[in-house]
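User: Is it possible to get a 3D structure for a protein together with its bound compound? The compound here is coenzyme A. I've pasted both below.
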Amino acid sequence: MAKFLDKISERAKKLNKTIALPESDDIRTLQAAAKILERGIANIVLVGDEADIKALAGDLDISGAKIVNPKTYEKKDEYIQAFYELRKHKGVTLESAAEIMSDYVYFAVMMAKLGEADGVVSGANHSSSDTLRPAVQIVKTAPGAALASAFFIIAVPDCEYGSNGTFLFADSGMVEMPSVEDVANIAVSSAKTFELLVQDVPKVAMLSYSTKGSAKSPLTAATIAATKRAQELAPDVAIDGELQVDAAIVPKVAASKAPGSPVAGKANVFIFPDLNCGNIAYKIAQRLAKAEAYGPITQGLAKPINDLSRGCSDEDIVGAVAITCVQAAAQKK
Ligand code: COA
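Assistant: Yes, that's possible. Here is the predicted structure of the complex:
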């Protein structure tokens, strides 16, 4: 994983992207900002009060960061108006828009929407919902994406499966009870994301407790339907299901359970039927297989807005910022 993140950081350095960090009251954010600026990974906007940020930073060198205070920013009224226009059909008034725009996470996401930042990283001291709700309300989905979802890059040490032990797991962090159409869209987005971040050809396994009809139930039928739909949406991508995990990654098992499959035995993208499966699976890989888990990373948004775990380190924030830069550059193409 260190290798994966090193490569992503090197790619980010060439992109000159600007990432907004709204959690400027958290020392890990400031430590990360100092490292990002020193390494030249991204330009940084810290959202917050300048005096408070400088007091918390102490000796950290964050002089290269731009500091924007939502309360005094010269474009404050433009931001309030923009949020009001976006959400007035949901009962938002100018008064409530002003209050919402004083929230640092909402403000940072609006910076991305209005093109003053290329992406946002938040979640060190906010819940996933507090980071993701502003994202789905303000920047919304990217053209061609039916929904936003969240994935983890999982790098298993000394592992011959997947892409040299590297996998993408989705959805493992956002969409709780996806419909068949949602699962199909998550599969298609995940294939593109895998190609972008891991730079290998995606082989997408639609996972189940059954392989190719070995069991029959409404659950297996849903995965079969999602597989069919994903194949229709992305006919050029190797997508197959329904597959059990062993059939998906172990060539010998694949040969007996799913002969002729373009994916079985070589899968590197795992698509789960719901958030329970996706979240449980990544934590098992992380804790029992001692895999590095990077995420949750969002995909399918018009601008990359990425969530952090509340137990994250400053280096985790640096990594998330680098990934956000690479995602932002891909969206501009
Ligand atoms: N993709 C795109 N848009 C989405 C979306 C998705 N996955 N989920 C919700 N939306 C849209 C809704 O359609 C709605 O649009 P509108 O208000 O313009 O009509 C808007 O976002 C807000 O929806 P709302 O109902 O207020 O939010 P929600 O309760 O559906 O929550 C999340 C959306 C993202 C906040 C929710 O899915 C969530 O909390 N996910 C995180 C789960 C979690 O805790 N993960 C931690 C494990 S690591």
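The pocket of coenzyme A is lined by residues 90, 128-129, 132-133, 136-137, 141, 147-148, 173-175, 279, 296 (CB under 6 Å). The first strand starts at residue 18 and ends at 21.
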